[in-house]
């Protein structure tokens, strides 16, 4: 069975601080996909990144960066120079390979990390 | 980009009534749609996988007779909460798989907040 653990329930930082959100996953699949989503108070999920199990390259997108390490089954997310607008719940998710040639199957979500950035 | 809509965005109903939630992929065809439920301050839990033209596959513990799913076309899936009770109050989110181009991904709808009184 697949499992995603986000050990940090809540994180509080002051604006401009860097913050790392941890994500550890478990799966028996050799092909899988990892995601990060942001959920602001409105509830709508905002897609941040997708990474497949064969691509361990770290990625940087503006103030966001992701560190994927298969050896430790971790996919951590760092926000550099945090801003108040970054305040939200962040979910890490794991997807099995989909059926019928599709890449995506159902997603297993972590419990989420509530990030609060204070001015 | 691809968009998924949900209707209604929020609904309040009396206990015992049935509520239908629609999930539409607006500019792409989705052979597979997923329904998730999120209780306050909790994670999203998959309820069922919906494939166009076939019966939905429900996750363990989800009552298929209570949560009826119909995926009648490649752009529409509906979730009907039958005989709703207060414990069914939750945030229901659908997602649709988009094969591409430019690439495969999964898009989420904005969610539907259900409050059963």
Question: Main attributes?
Answer:
heterodimer; A: 119 residues; mainly beta; 6-stranded mixed sheet; 4-stranded antiparallel sheet; 0% helix; B: 117 residues; 7-stranded mixed sheet; globular
Protein model, in words:
The complex is a heterodimer of chains A (119) and B (117). Chain A is an all-beta fold and 119 residues long. Chain A has strands at residues 3-5, 10-14, 19-21, 24-26, 32-39, 46-52, 59-61, 64-69, 74-79, 88-96, 107-109, 113-118. In chain A, strands 2, 5, 6, 10, 11 and 12 form a six-stranded mixed β-sheet that branches. In chain A, strands 3-9-8-7 form a four-stranded antiparallel β-sheet, with no helix packed on it. In chain A, a hairpin with a 2-residue loop joins strand 7 and strand 8 (64-69). Chain A is globular and about 45 Å long. The termini of chain A are far apart. The model of chain A has no long low-confidence stretch (mean pLDDT 91). Helix content of chain B is 0%, strand content 54%. Chain B is globular and about 45 Å long. In chain B, strands 2, 4, 5, 6, 9, 10 and 11 form a seven-stranded mixed β-sheet that branches. In chain B, strands 1-3-8-7 form a four-stranded antiparallel β-sheet, with no helix packed on it. In chain B, 34% of the residues are buried. Classes of the chains: A mainly beta (119), B mainly beta (117). The A-B interface holds A 37, 42-45, 47, 50, 91, 95, 98-100, 102-112 and B 31-32, 34, 36, 42-46, 49, 91, 93, 95, 97, 99, 104-108, 110-111, 113.
Query: What gross morphology of chain B would you assign?
Result: globular
Largest sheet of chain B: 7 strands, mixed
Low-confidence runs of at least 5 consecutive residues of chain A? none
Beta content of chain B: over 45%
Helices and strands of chain A, in order, run as: EEEEEEEEEEEE
Mean pLDDT rating of chain A = 91
Helix proportion range of chain B:
under 10%
Mean pLDDT across all residues of chain B, rounded?
Answer: 91
Oligomer: heterodimer
Distance between the termini of chain B: 37 Å
Biggest pleated-sheet summary of chain A: 6 strands, mixed
Radius of gyration of chain A: 14 Å
Radius of gyration of chain B: 14 Å
Order of helices and strands of chain B: EEEEEEEEEEE
Largest interface: A-B, 23 and 23 residues
* Tally of alpha and pi helices of chain A: 0
Give the number of DSSP strands of chain B: 11
């Amino acid at each position: 069975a697949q499992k995603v653990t986000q050990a940090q329930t809540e994180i509080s930082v002051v604006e401009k601080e860097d913050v790392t959100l941890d994500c550890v996953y478990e799966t028996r699949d050799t092909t899988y996909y990892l995601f990060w989503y942001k959920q602001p108070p409105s509830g709508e999920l905002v897609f941040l990144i997708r990474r497949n199990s064969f691509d361990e390259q770290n990625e940087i997108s503006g103030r966001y960066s992701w560190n994927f390490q298969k050896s430790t089954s971790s996919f951590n997310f760092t926000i550099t120079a945090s801003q108040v607008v970054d305040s939200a719940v962040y979910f890490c998710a794991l997807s099995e390979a989909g059926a019928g040639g599709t890449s995506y199957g159902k997603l297993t979500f972590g419990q989420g990390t509530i990030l609060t950035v204070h001015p | 980009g691809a968009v998924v809509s949900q209707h209604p965005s929020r609904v309040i109903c009396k206990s015992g009534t049935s509520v239908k939630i629609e999930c539409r992929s607006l500019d792409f065809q989705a052979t597979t749609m997923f329904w998730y439920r999120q209780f306050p301050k909790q994670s999203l839990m998959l309820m069922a996988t919906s494939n166009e033209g076939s019966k939905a596959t429900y996750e363990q513990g989800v009552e298929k007779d209570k949560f009826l799913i119909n995926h009648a076309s490649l752009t529409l899936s509906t979730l009907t909460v039958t005989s709703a009770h207060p414990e069914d109050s939750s945030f229901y989110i659908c997602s649709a798989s988009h094969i591409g181009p430019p690439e495969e991904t999964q898009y989420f709808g904005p969610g539907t907040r259900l409050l059963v009184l």
